[in-house]
Amino acid sequence: MANQDAAFGLKPSSKLGSNVNSEGTTEYSIASGASGNIFSGDPVKMANTGTILVAAAGDQLLGVFRGCRYTNASGEVIYSAYWPMVLSHQTRWLS
Asked: I need a surface site. Which of 26, 41, 48, 85 has the fewest CB within 10 A?
């Protein structure tokens, strides 16, 4: 079967050095009013406010967005592979 020509974001492939690649994550907050959704695999940068935003060409990369955790309007904690832009400040994971 032929390879699909479709976008998939950044994917980890290997690690320099001889220690184990644990693919650990770090929690950051997403900037309030961030425009657009952020999907797993999107490159992100650190904003001046100490929060993260989707990186553009030429930006210094902080890492790769892996998913997020937020509380919806019903009070349920949601774990998701993408950040819907309609939400406000919450905790996110970055790899």
From this structure: 48
Using alpha carbons, list the distances in angstroms from residue 72 to 14, 33, 79, 81.
35, 17, 10, 15
Record the tokens describing residue 82, joined without a space.
């993408």
CA atoms within 13 A of residue 84's CA, in its CB half-sphere: 9
Residue ranges of the domains in the chain?
26-94
- The distance of Cα 25 from the centroid of its chain, to the nearest Å, equals 10
Distance from C-alpha of 70 to C-alpha of 89, rounded to nearest angstrom: 9
Tell me: the pLDDT tens digits for 63-72?
888 888 887 7
Nearest one of 42, 20, 25, 43 to 95, comparing CA atoms = 25
